[in-house]
Amino acid sequence: MGIDIKDLEPETAATITRIIIKEQQKLEKKEHDRRLRNTMMLLVNYRRLKLHIQTEPGDDELTMEYEEKNGVVIRFDEISKYHAKSRALIKYLDKILKVYKVECEEGSDADYRKYQVINKLYLTPHKYRLIDLQPIYDKDTSTLNKDKLKAIEDISVMLYGVEALLDKGNLK
Length: 172
Fold this sequence. Notes:
This protein is mainly α and 172 residues long. It has helices at 10-44, 46-54, 60-70, 77-105, 109-123, 130-137, 141-160, 162-167. The radius of gyration is 24 Å and the shape is flat. The two termini are 36 Å apart.
């Protein structure tokens, strides 16, 4: 049971083809958006993740005390797995950011500004906002936001490689 494609009218086949292509484009855009969003989420949460990996899960004294009082055994093996994943991810991201910084320093003033914007917004201990950067770089916040978005795209390419280029339609 089913429809044989040979039995379709040419107009119907063309309509189905257009619908399939449109849906495929939506899926590709969604995947591209996901990568950019993931990169953005890594940067937005960079400071928290750095703090997270500086702490070790499981304080033996507190754990024993809690278990004795409540009769519940705390298992830190799952938390330790998340901790290890976070540590590996931040280590990788730090390497990417180091290479990106060098690339931007060797580029134009605008390239260097892209790195500096990302650095000040997400990486330094002091939290800046775009409006705080306006007097530093003597640029409008819209320009600084474009720098931020371009830097996020650049970092996405460095994180995801060819897949990020495919997303942008640069390679097929």
